[in-house]
């Protein structure tokens, strides 16, 4: 079992460590501090219930007008396939709805089939594309799909 809890700017270093384990292009703690200082920005972390609690995944999102934008979401490699991504996304949907957002928007790498499957199951649909948006570790570029759903 796990708990998904809000996280503040003090979690920036931990978010950066998790991000580095989840993505080729890692963001540092300063990037997370900057993101979490933005108006309407929020973070949530999934934690084990065991003592000591260990992080399992995270989501950073922001409210911008009528939209809730998922800035980054990741589940640590050893924890994937346990529906944590779904729980994190549901947390955003509930919190964004409480904040008055009317639409959820996110970007996903075209080749990230597990994430695309999750987002489709959560009723997000492709609404756009950014060509060559993501840079992979080996230097290749990958398109970002922009996905959205009404809340």
Automatic annotation (TrEMBL):
Classification via SUPFAM superfamilies: Acyl-CoA N-acyltransferases (Nat)
Alphabetized InterPro entries for the sequence: Acyl_CoA_acyltransferase (IPR016181), Bact_Acetyltransf (IPR050832), GNAT_dom (IPR000182)
Alphabetical keyword list: Acyltransferase, Transferase
N-acetyltransferase domain mapped to chain residues: 2-151
Short name of any one Pfam family annotated for the protein: Acetyltransf_1
Gene3D superfamilies from the UniProt entry: 3.40.630.30
Source species, domain of life: Bacteria
Classification via PROSITE patterns: GNAT
Molecular function GO labels: acyltransferase activity, transferring groups other than amino-acyl groups
UniProt name for this protein: N-acetyltransferase domain-containing protein
Gene source species: Candidatus Defluviicoccus seviourii
């Amino acid at each position: 079992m796990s708990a998904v809890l809000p996280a503040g700017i003090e979690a920036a270093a931990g978010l950066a460590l998790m991000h580095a384990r989840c993505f080729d292009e890692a963001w540092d703690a300063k990037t997370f501090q900057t993101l979490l200082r933005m108006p309407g920005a929020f973070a949530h972390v999934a934690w084990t219930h065991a003592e000591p609690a260990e992080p399992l995944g995270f989501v950073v999102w922001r409210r911008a007008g009528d939209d809730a934008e998922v800035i980054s979401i990741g589940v640590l490699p050893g924890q994937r396939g346990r529906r944590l991504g779904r729980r994190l996304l549901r947390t955003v949907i509930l919190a964004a709805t409480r904040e008055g957002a009317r639409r959820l928007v996110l970007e996903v790498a075209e080749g990230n089939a597990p994430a695309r499957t999750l987002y489709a199951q959560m009723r997000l649909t492709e609404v756009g594309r950014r060509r060559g948006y993501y840079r992979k570790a080996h230097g290749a570029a990958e398109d970002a799909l922009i996905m959205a759903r009404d809340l």
